Amino acid sequence: MIKRIATLVFCAISAQFFYSQQGYWQQKVVYNMDIDFNDELHQFSGHQEIVYTNNSPDKLDKVFFHLYYNAFQPGSMMDVRSRTIEDPDYRVMDRISNLNSNEIGYHKIESITDKKGNELSYNIDGTIMQVALNNSLNSGKSTKIIIDFKSQVPIQIRRTGRFNSEGVAYSMTQWYPKLCEYDIEGWHSNPYIGREFHGVWGDFNVNITMDKDYTIGATGTLQNKQEIGHGYEDSSKPIKTSNSKKLTWRFKAKNVHDFAWAADKDFIHHTTKLNNGTTLHFIHKDDSLNDNWLKLESYAKNCFHYVNENYGEYPYDNYSIIQGGDGGMEYPMCTLISAGGSLKGLISVTVHESVHSWFQGLLATNEAKYEWMDEGFCTYAQYQTLNHLYGVKVLNPVSRQYASYIRLANSDSQEPLSTHADFYKKNYVYGVSAYNKGAVFLSQLGYVIGDDFLKIGMKEYFNQWKFKHPTPTDFKRVMEKTSGLELDWYFEQFVNTINTIDYSINEAIELGEKTKITLKRIGDMPMPIDVCVKLKNGEIHWYNIPLRIMRGQKGKDIIGEKVTFLSDWPWVYPEYEFEIDFSKDEIQQIIIDPSTRLADVLPENNTLDFSSKDKDVIRFKSNN
To answer: Which of 55, 73, 228, 449 has the lowest CB atom count within 10 Å?
Structure first.
């Protein structure tokens, strides 16, 4: 009977989500690309046949493309932004302004036509190209756009380019004319100035013709493995050798929103397989760091197992971990990472970029607008995963992210999380906001609704919004339906403002055999409050004060099940009083949130200590 009830509840929740998404739509694209690469000139010619389907209710008369390589030219917006922002990225600085003509990146369009061979007019403005359609593209209809172009791979400066600091020949990211996204808000034709990306969901058929000595790692699945070899072949079948100086690699990727690859003559390639059949590819230089790469395999495998179990099942047949780029950057079905010098560093960056396969790769939020849903959620999951991989039980795995956020919150530099990624005044503020405050947002949400509801909600979020472009509202509604609580206030305050959290224990007054505790809200952002009372006899008692605007109380949480829920706190009241059934002589400490998940910017006023001998901070174990 219990099983049947659980099934009915699940069906009811699933039905709610189904009906809530009935108005949702997204565009669709199919890229068919033939690339002929000249490694002597570091250039390639490209032929694209793009089928674009308009699933919007609107009639479209034009489309926009990203031409990312054009950012790597003196005087580009990316160049100027780097030379004028207060704290430029050390990888960029003024390097773009000093590039020579044979070092810059570019996309030169040779022709754009429709399926009948009629020319389409276009205009290029930096990294954005506008293409006028000869015939309006009505709702539900498709059009074909054929582009012939020539490109030059820039010196590696930021993410993409040739010959990175570790000597990888080609890191081919943001390397082709890529359709801009059109959604319910309209076109997103943001110029590229060095932040991250947003793309149309679709299918890629990419043929790369290149000198046969190169090994390529890429998004997608290689279709002609026996012709290529290079570690992709089935050893039980014969390899079809070729006397040609070049090989054509044929990759297919279905239902992704970008395509990346890397190539080097010294790459070696080895694989391991997950229990669900996904093959992990490791593609890297044959050098002194080989031992680290070999040891990485088991960590990467366990990483995928953990994230599959806790956040949702990775749906693709392949994932490639490729040496390249300038640190670590996520792409569908692959990542490009710098190997670094230590195994621990390699593991950490691999976990972070792999987790991006969920947050960004499959839950493809607009990173320019909601960078915290991408980098922040990924950072939260990264440290949960590392906690698991190293077999440690850290109560708050993102405590360093809290400390970083609190430093920013106590400064004059903080900007709201709702700031567009390109418009942060400092790179430092962007980094702390996107990665650290974003991680704090998710961890603190568990404090608000209960850790169990957070875990359930994260999987529900994945199952309902994978292969889509979720927004903060979509995520909020998942968590509201999962927890049964109202969460408008939390998103409004923590995302759209720079209001901070600061609560204090104002006083504790003895009332015979009882004690009256008074809490005070000092910060502008209201929160529910966990209060822990530790007695001198070793007993620990928990009290939770919900916010009235939550319309309920948290579910099962890491603090345990023995919690006394008090009356809710209307947020406009600056103080809150409650009584406990212990005298002051029995109490050792009273602490607001010793789990440290409340992002209180002044934790020093969160503790009252009644013991002159025992000054130890309360420690308790997670019941996970």
So the answer is: 55
